[in-house]
Structure prediction request, 249 residues.
Amino acid sequence: MLDIKNLHASIAGKEILKGINLHINAGETHAIMGPNGAGKSTLSAVLAGNPAYTVTEGEVTFNGKDLLSMAPEVRAREGLFLSFQYPVEIPGVSMTNFMRAAVNAKREHQGLPALNAGEFLKLMRAKRALVELDNKLAGRSVNEGFSGGEKKRNEIFQMAMLEPCLSILDETDSGLDIDALRIVAEGVNKLHTAENATIVITHYQRLLDYIVPDYVHILADGQIVRTGGKELAMELEESGYAGLTNNKG
Prediction:
């Protein structure tokens, strides 16, 4: 599904990614962990097409297509979804109108007819229940006045509505209490199928108690320095990043 080869990227002339290699198949969940400044959020931004970053070397294919040649909105329509670490508020834009426009843009890209109002509201009710999103939140402007936990839950609701092939969760657990973390993680798990894949970016092993990864990658100084199974996250809890990154393998 996703194949990253020797990816280098910079921002404002400073190189952040220094040769990322990563392969993800449908049905897999990959966790990316690492210290602050390692390049975790940069990787998610580059994959989503953030124009602030410049790719200087390497290639990325997504479902057999050249991802780096696509505009950000085309990447989204092709099935790539990014859950932001700090979701933004969009005052004056209702969640209903926002999501209907997004869902129908993707359907148009796929050659499918737009959902009418009734079809869309039926879909919205089903997906809202899946992630336990309060009806009152769904009726408000995008993230306006939401708590941190509500914003993160709203991100997973958007993911449920768009049904992406590849979901990138950039520190979705940051700022969540244990109940909000459980609800968000359960939503992610319910949406996971053999046809899609998930990248979970996190600092902490606790999220991986709920979203169990097939692979854990340690990112340090712009490179993946260790890869292993879920036990690697447990090792990280005990030794810290220094112990792992000093023993590359």
